Amino acid sequence: MEKEKSTKVGVGAVILDKANKILLVLRKKAPEAGCWSLPGGKVDYMETIENAIIREIKEELGVDIEITQLVCVTNHIIQSENVHYVAPTFAARITNGEVQNREPHALEEVQWFSINEIPENITMTTDYALKQLKFF
């Protein structure tokens, strides 16, 4: 029996440090494995998107964040990977903790990048969010 296809909700965060560097994670898993991405994840049933991004960042990176604004919503549709997410992205700042890779099974690397030196291999949601913030 074929798995039922459905749209999912994922969240991401644009996290900048005081030097205006952006935090990206290198994905090991689909969708877009091998690409640099904003940190984030899936929204659980009955969870708000705001609570989801706060939880996901804590789980992935071990830090607490404060959301400062909604940046955009991406239609994350990749037919070749059979993926369809609606992906709100928030701007956020770290309020507590030191960034670390707490999900090495899913993330190859976690790194700060100068906004002028973003890698070319970024995810669709990262590309769209950065364009909305007019970094490119």
TrEMBL record:
<dbReference type="InterPro" id="IPR020476">
    <property type="entry name" value="Nudix_hydrolase"/>
</dbReference>
<dbReference type="InterPro" id="IPR015797">
    <property type="entry name" value="NUDIX_hydrolase-like_dom_sf"/>
</dbReference>
<dbReference type="Pfam" id="PF00293">
    <property type="entry name" value="NUDIX"/>
</dbReference>
<dbReference type="InterPro" id="IPR000086">
    <property type="entry name" value="NUDIX_hydrolase_dom"/>
</dbReference>
<keyword id="KW-0378">Hydrolase</keyword>
<dbReference type="InterPro" id="IPR020084">
    <property type="entry name" value="NUDIX_hydrolase_CS"/>
</dbReference>
<protein>
    <submittedName>
        <fullName>NUDIX domain-containing protein</fullName>
    </submittedName>
</protein>
<feature type="domain" description="Nudix hydrolase">
    <location>
        <begin position="6"/>
        <end position="136"/>
    </location>
</feature>
<comment type="similarity">
    <text>Belongs to the Nudix hydrolase family.</text>
</comment>
